[in-house]
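note to self: dont lose this again. the chain is below, predicted strucutre after it. 418 aa total, dont forget to put it in the shared folder this time
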Amino acid sequence: MKVAIFTLPLVNNYGGILQAYALQRALESYGFEAPVVNLKIRQRGLFSRDYLKFLLAKLIYFKKYKNAEFSTLRYYADTQRFIAQNIETTREIYSPAALKRLFEQEKFGACVLGSDQVFNPPYFDAFENDFSLGFAPQSCIKIAYAASFGGESFKGARDLELHKANLAKFKAISVRERNGAALCESVFGISGAAFVLDPTLLAGREVFEKFISPAGAASSVKPDVAELAQRSTANRAEAEGMQDGGAAQNLNGVAADIADTAFSAQDTGENAVCGANAAQKGQIFAYILDQNERKSEILKSVSEREGLGVREVNDKANRVSIEEWLSLIASAQLVITDSFHGCAFSILFNKPFFAFINENRGSSRFYSLFESFELQDRVIKSASDVSLSKQVDWARVNEILSRRREASREFLISNLRA
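---
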């Protein structure tokens, strides 16, 4: 059977891309063909406009930024390369009308909604009114796998009654967090949602091992960002008949934007030195999405106390390839993160880890994950909470993972049968 995977648009997000890859690998191992619906966020002129701002900044501040690289395109190029090489997708879809046509033409036997925050409609951008799969034909089996609300409440939808009616037609619904089952009942009127594993934990370490290099070595892939800029604009124009425009707009505030649009020579150099020191001393891999002074102070304190170097990655400046991100987790002596998938991969690779609870991004995701694996002591409230002496019973964790993996596998296979 051909099964469509309907998840959030695949953009510059390690966890979002890897969960889609993992769900596809899992479904293929069960005997299904499972392309990911290739939703595209419409961002006319995004790269050409930012690239022009970047070039202007280099001209104005040449001495400071003469060795800078354009990080937006560099990172976009890398994620698109990873997707093209490792994830089977449908043609690019830029509108709800095109989405409906795709399902009419492809005759999918089933559609899996998930995983990630698919019950957080605004994250679908232009497709936020499609999260309940109302576009799919009646003959198409519809299920939700490891759907997440992304927090403690539903963020809202334009026509809730319509979505409740659409979701009532699903054969089965499962959620990634325990509180998701209660939210399904209170918001959608659907009871009995199953509690299943995130796809990264379902698929298993084996599907990621080919991406892991020794000691978290940097990826040798260096995409040509100028070529990517031209190609991405051309692809969007071809798919939707659009003409890119507005490249010369919004050039004010260049100095403020340069930090977000470039890897400066200073940033790159500091990160390289930090990585070298970490390799010599043993390494803490710090993947921090929302940085602040408190987290930095705790990270410094733990590093000094444990005698470990720090390799820090975030989504603003110190970006690395998807392969290197996985390798850094796999080779770390300790992981410190405020990311759900940072925690999930630490569990998968049996790496000691501790986590800042990211309240703004939804605390229930963390508590649900930790409670299900009996890892409640992984929460960071102060530097004293983090210590390598707090050992994890990985035999127990892996026993729970094996049991939950079988239940999650059974949910998918049994509900995708015609």
